[in-house]
Design brief:
The chain is mainly α. It has one domain. It is built from nine helices and no strands. The termini are far apart.
Amino acid sequence: MFETRRHNSGWRVFFNLAETTFVASARKVRATHRNAIVALLMTILQAAMFVGGFYLIFAVMGMREAAIRGDYFLYLLSGIYVYMGHIKALGAVAGAEGPTSPMMQHAPMNTVVAIVSSALSALYTQTLALLVLLFALHTLVQPIEIHDWGFSLMLYLLGWFSGCAIGTIFLAFKPWAPDLVKILQQAYTRINMIASGKMFVANMMPSIIISMLDWNPLFHIIDQMRGAMFVNYFPHHSNWQYPLAMSVGFLMIGLIAEFYTRQRASASWDAGR
């Protein structure tokens, strides 16, 4: 009888969604540990160990001579960290709450918010770890000089965006065949250890190898990243427009498939799992 009518304008809906996304993103960041600071430190440590491990591998195998002339740590980061950001974003989006998750019982929550919050939480943790690594290298090793900061940032975000786009496809098909999707996701991650080109310089590859790898958007992003970071490297076998177009296409396919799955989702799918 007595109730207050609230006019839901477009701005009110936008801010409600933004608030829900922020809360869900914070929850995702703290999901790996009860203490948020410890969770961030674990992410930073993981990134440092990953880069350090590849540094030792390159040094032992004598692959350091094949790197671009310039800061060797930046050469490693230009490949390894773009790959990490891509894979982490893919895993975060693919692991987001689906339509049958108990979180969807809360009124402001929906699958779009779950996808966006998962993507933003991955971007936040990976970017913070990257800034800490760059600061440590700049202060403890030697000053860092990046040729084009703006273009490098754009390519870093493109690598994250492409991972999110592919992750939506895995998320959409996961309720139908969870075991198969898990295998395909692991296979994609393993294949990109080589197919991303993060361990090689594209301009130094034989043409037959390039023809086997240029289908991969991540290969183009990493090669373009090295052109943006080093003044003496000019990518001849890649461009940034291709991964952008492919990422938008993957995102549209993933969202359409996710909408189809959401309309047919049943709580019984999660029974026994």
